[in-house]
Specification:
By secondary structure, chain A is an alpha+beta fold. Helices cover 46% and strands 11% of the residues of chain A. The chains are: A alpha+beta, B alpha/beta. Bound molecules: flavin mononucleotide, iron/sulfur cluster (SF4) and FE2/S2 (inorganic) cluster (FES).
Chain lengths: 162, 453
């Protein structure tokens, strides 16, 4: 596991935010996942050693929280809200549109590895649903047409990538 | 009667053209003046203002904020922590998001006043993991406030020091529950703690006295410090003071966030006048008034009884559109104000499917510690989803109810109630739809019917 120097310095910066090192578990896991894309067993062991914990203490955290993953995902991460307010205005259709556009199913990496689509619970933007979080960016009022446009944009960006 | 005008206190600058989330803009609008005045006062005085204000928590339970603060163990000799609940995870709720993204310094000023009043030296903002931009905005805002000496060591030359750090969650709803949140902040699975003995005010973060408050609550604290508790208590209605941000989603013409004096607007005014009524050609069928855990209200049902208005007891006879949107009235009719998330469903909605959607949420989010909650939420999901995707039986409603009835009151945290109330209330009010479902299912679906689960 090769972490970027910037990740390492942010890790050292965040640990003293807490009187107990263990509290830095979630922040460290976020930083490592942002850097290398997922949390392989080495990452779990590395965090445990860094925070003077047993690997199981970190492992049980990784397996509980939906945002942590132990396997790589597509280059882009599309999270579609599944919960009631979004469903009432067409959230399920949006998810289906993305699945079709990328020829994949929820939770799987699309052929070619461009995207992973995930159905997630309420994203706290229920008044402007259906909402979709693509990587860090929220898209609101995503109907089937807008989902298609977003998918096209992702495909274009992928095509332009060297 | 048409709806009263909005009273924007907390959302004064939300969506205002030209208003930006940096320190300079906040200060230009009078920001941190209240904090400067507050640090010149005695901390006890500030706590008294909050007590006088009657402010009730905006995170869900509506617990009086001043009372919460007075329960803090101040004699233990241990440090006191403030934990800001920015988990905003109750379905239907989307208010804290805008405060943090568009007006983060309002929250930071509220945090610093709260910390000064309670002699807190360390505050953590626990923000849900799905707000990555929100976390960065808050971090930048804290850095700005620190550079201006509003946060950090020796604040404004007073000798008082206090740090604020942002802590990101990772996608689990149960982290909104205050003791689950504390466990998560300690770096563990967010398993809620048993109360007693683990009341945060006594044994909270690192077993130290801890105050947990919602983002919106702390913004109200800032306003209370500005205008005084007495003046604040005159806004809204008795025992339901101040303003409240109502988040409306689902089947209305104008969903969104609206801030009103608490109890001054009825559900009918909110839905018809403010939100423009139902979508063309539709009629309202049901409303969940306080986040997805709140018991559902059915259009057409009536509530009768006596209630206190000032010194008098008066009769009331309400349809759901007549109910004032405050904590007490919504509790009186068997639901709750909760987090302020109003979810609206019209006549196109299949209630069995709507409940199946809600049940899927709770089954996914139960932390799994208590058997009744873990197993019950799962079975409620399985039964309701089988009704939609497999075979439906006339007795399924009764079966669902019997599962729900065995959860509440038998669990460590209030999630047990939160996951059983939707099922109990859907069956109580739409039981006929559940009973008739095996027949309904055979009828052709309306063209515009949306999949809900
Ligand atoms: C299952 C569950 C989920 C909760 N989720 C949230 C939440 O997302 N945000 C929040 O502020 N409070 C939430 N609460 C309420 C908190 O436990 C706590 O009462 C609140 O943060 C206290 O702040 P207040 O007094 O300012 O309202 C939740 C409670 C339960 C039982
Ligand atoms: S009630 Fe449910 S969510 Fe709460 S502690 Fe028990 S299992 Fe966990
Ligand atoms: S239900 Fe989709 S954001 Fe809340």
């Amino acid at each position: 596991m090769n972490l970027k120097p910037e990740t390492l310095s942010r890790i050292d910066e965040v640990i003293p935010h807490y009187p107990s090192k263990r509290s830095a578990t979630l922040p460290l896991l976020h930083l490592i996942q942002e850097d290398i894309g997922y949390l392989p067993p080495e990452a779990i062991e590395w965090v445990a050693a860094k925070l003077e914990l047993q690997p199981i203490n970190v492992y049980e955290v990784v397996t509980f929280y939906p945002m942590f993953r132990q396997k790589p995902i597509g280059r882009r991460h599309i999270k579609v809200c599944r919960t009631l307010s979004c469903a009432l205005v067409g959230g399920y259709k949006v998810c289906e549109t993305f699945e079709k556009e990328f020829n994949t199913r929820c939770g799987e990496v699309s052929p070619g590895g461009e995207v992973t689509i995930e159905f997630v619970e309420c994203l706290a933007s229920c008044g402007s649903g259906p909402v979709v979080l693509i990587d860090d960016d929220l898209h609101e009022k995503v109907d089937a047409a807008k989902a298609k446009a977003l998918a096209d944009q992702i495909k274009q960006e992928a095509a332009r990538r060297p | 009667m048409s709806a009263p005008a909005q009273r924007r206190i907390i959302f004064q600058h939300i969506d205002e053209p030209g208003y930006t989330n940096d320190l300079a803009c906040y200060v230009r609008h009078g920001g941190y003046e209240t904090f400067k005045k507050s640090v010149a006062r005695k901390p006890e005085e500030l706590i008294d203002e909050v007590k006088k204000s009657g402010l009730r928590g905006r995170g869900g339970a509506g617990f009086p904020c001043g009372v919460k603060w007075s329960l803090v163990d101040r004699k233990s000799g241990k440090p006191i922590y403030l934990v800001v609940n920015a988990d905003e995870s109750e379905p239907g709720t989307f208010k804290d998001r805008y405060i943090m993204h568009q007006d983060p310094h309002q929250l930071i000023e509220g945090i610093m006043i709260t910390c000064f009043a309670n002699n807190v030296k360390q505050a953590y903002i626990y923000i849900r993991g799905e707000f990555p931009h929100g976390a960065r905005i808050l971090e930048k805002a804290i850095a700005e406030a620190r550079a201006a000496n509003f946060v950090g060591p020796n604040v404004l030359g007073t000798g008082y020091s206090c740090e604020i750090y942002v802590h990101r969650g990772a996608g689990a709803y149960i982290c909104g529950e205050e003791t689950g949140l504390i466990e998560s902040l300690e770096g563990k699975r967010p398993y809620p703690r048993i109360k007693p003995p683990y009341f945060p005010a006594v044994l909270g973060l690192y077993q130290c006295p801890t105050i947990v408050n919602n983002v919106e609550t702390l913004c109200h604290v800032k306003y209370i410090a500005e205008v005084g508790g007495e003046a604040y208590s005159k806004i809204g209605t008795p025992n339901n003071t101040g303003t409240r941000i109502l988040c409306v989603s689902g089947h209305v013409q104008r969903p969104g966030y609206y801030e009103f004096e608490v109890g001054k607007i009825t559900l009918g005014q909110l839905l018809y006048d403010v939100c423009g009524g139902p979508l063309p050609g539709r009629t309202f069928k049901a409303v969940i008034p306080g986040g997805s855990s709140a018991k559902i209200l059915k259009v057409g049902e009536r509530f009768k009884g006596k209630r206190k208005v000032g010194p008098d007891m008066v009769d009331y006879d309400w349809g759901i559109e007549d109910v004032p949107m405050d904590f007490d009235c919504l509790a009186m009719i068997g639901s709750m104000g909760g987090s302020g998330g109003v979810i609206v469903m019209d006549d196109s909605v299949d209630m069995v499917a709507a409940l199946a959607n809600i049940n899927a949420f709770y089954a996914h989010e139960s932390c799994g510690q208590c058997t009744p909650c873990r197993e019950g939420s799962l079975w409620m999901k399985k039964i309701s989803s089988r009704m939609i995707h497999g075979e439906a039986r006339p007795e399924d409603g009764a079966l669902l109810k019997s599962v729900a009835d065995q959860i509440a009151g038998r669990t460590i945290c209030a999630f047990g109630e939160a996951c059983s109330w939707p099922t109990q209330s859907f069956i109580a009010k739409f039981g006929d739809e559940f009973k008739a479902y095996p027949q309904t299912k055979k009828a052709p679906k309306a063209e515009n019917a949306l999949e809900l689960v």
